[in-house]
Amino acid sequence: MRPHFNLLLQQAFRGGCAALQTLGGLFFPPLCPGCLGDSAAAHALCAACQQRIAREVIEAPFCATCSRPFRGAEVGENLTAFVCAECRERRAPAFTHAVAGHLARGVVRELIHAFKYEGRFYLRRPLTDWLQVSLANDSRLRDFRPDALVAVPLHPRRQRARGYNQAAVLAALLGRHAGLPFFAHAVRRVRDTPTQTHLTREERIENLRGAFLVPPRKQVRIAGRRLLLLDDVFTTGSTVNACARALRDAGAAEVRVLAVARG
Ligand SMILES: [Zn+2]
Ligand SMILES: [Zn+2]
Questions:
Q1: Which end of the chain is more exposed for a tag (fewer CB within 10 A), N or C?
Q2: How far is the CA of 32 from the centre of ligand 1 (A)?
Q3: What is the C-alpha separation between 150 and 140, in angstroms, rounded?
Q4: pTM across the whole model
Q5: What is the pLDDT of residues 185-200, one digit of tens each?
Q6: Domains and their CATH numbers in the chain
């Protein structure tokens, strides 16, 4: 229990004055939010965790539409123009690009899981840092200049159980860091969809039909806007696509997707 308490305390001191923070540092040396071992600074991942995370970074070549990595590219091939077979088959996706900086494996998967299901809320900071790196560096987002951020919603029942929507928490924090407005509750999940992991892609699409809706009073904010849709993880892209579809149906000019990781 102590490491978690220590991290919560770091968080409390972070909001206070510098003298209090120094005092906090004396009694409670900074811990890595990844492994709960020693770290150089409060909320900073330790060198070992950073190394493990670096192994999951998605590097070219990957699908320009869904970020799926692929092997076997010829030298000199235009790597940014590649689109995977699944995206070619997908009937006109509602998003232009779905960007993820990492694969949802190993320590990346563990950190996202801990943030979502284990109440380790302070992990929003390193996860948002990764989103910010993608926003600044990925060629599909660098020049996009979205009008606003929106988040993939949870069904209200699920959100009540968890206490927060992890995608909205990340979107709000990223918005503050990047100076972009976050449209909270722009899209609602009107149908709770059972877990999709065992379904085929066709079944997922059917399962998600009509699951998302932009409330009529929100449509005026959405119409004509270029939106960046945030999620923690996408796998086949069916969920972000269904959500992007609802936003496009409400008049959004363009939707691109940014997630911490892809499955
Ligand atoms: Zn660590
Ligand atoms: Zn693809």
A1: N
A2: 5
A3: 17
A4: 0.86
A5: 999 999 887 777 778 8
A6: 2-51 (no CATH), 92-262 (3.40.50.2020)
